[in-house]
């Protein structure tokens, strides 16, 4: 069954905004760190942002800092990625991921995440 499901991708122009959503089912959402990764064609999957399970700590890749905001809603069992001032280099498939590792783990690497969504395409035209 699908446990993480993303939505909200699309085709936008430079400078536009998008909000990605990730719905978590059949997993203990409150116990999970939630992250966003992205993968552009021909490139490895790379870290974008993470929000810890307690919700108070967030961390961003330098390339998106100040433009993207990660959040979560425990009642809805959802994580979000608000993307503003989009650039063509943000074009990629975006994945949400969940981890129940201890908070001291390196949450910037894909290997720390057991649960993944199917991905949603974001394309930013120039």
Overall residue-averaged pLDDT value:
95
Estimated radius of gyration: 13 Å
Largest sheet: 7 strands, mixed
Helix content: under 10%
DSSP E strands, number: 11
Low-confidence stretches: none
Give an account of the 3D structure.
There is one protein chain. The chain has 126 residues and is mainly β. The chain has strands at 4-7, 10-13, 18-24, 33-39, 46-51, 58-60, 68-73, 78-83, 92-99, 115-116, 120-125. The strands form two sheets. Strands 2, 4, 5, 6, 9, 10 and 11 form a seven-stranded mixed β-sheet that branches. A four-stranded antiparallel β-sheet has the order 1-3-8-7, with no helix packed on it. Strand 5 (46-51) and strand 6 (58-60) form a beta hairpin.
